[in-house]
Amino acid sequence: MAEVNTCLTNNIPFFYLPCAQIKKQQQDVISFMAVNKIEFEECDIAANEANRKWMRENVPEELRPATGNPLPPQIFNESKYCGSYEAFFEAREDNAVYAFLGLTAPPGSKVKLLNTNTYR
């Protein structure tokens, strides 16, 4: 029986790895989502092989590193790939995170429309 990715139950699955080297990036994404009341779910790829496999298979091939596997944090809206931390950071700097995530911005928020291919 195929393993089911339980991280696809909420709107924004957020795949992470408990590693000091990338913990700051992960915390940056988590903090932003929490402060802006964006529902998300953390998906541990170190403790859950199904999460690790799903994340690696669903990062678009053209955006994978030349060698090795894509490292977290990787951000998806349900099963649609949004981007890596670097893309998230760039979208945040441009006030375009809601567009990056494929979400409608709440009324009154600073928002920029973006070309969806810009942030990947």
Automatic annotation (TrEMBL):
The keyword Transport does not apply. Its main location: membrane. Keywords: Cell membrane, Cytoplasm, Membrane, SH3-binding. It holds the Pfam family SH3BGR. It is found in: Cell membrane; Cytoplasm, Cytosol. CDD domains: GRX_SH3BGR (cd03030). GO terms for molecular function: SH3 domain binding. Monomer. Interacts with PFN1/Profilin-1. Interacts with ERBB2. Interacts with ATG12. Interacts with BECN1. Interacts with translating ribosomes. Appears to function as an adapter protein that bridges proteins together or proteins with mRNAs. May function as a ubiquitin ligase-substrate adapter. Additionally, associates with translating cytoplasmic ribosomes and may promote the expression of specific mRNAs. Belongs to the SH3BGR family. This is SH3 domain-binding glutamic acid-rich-like protein 1. It comes from Monopterus albus (Swamp eel).
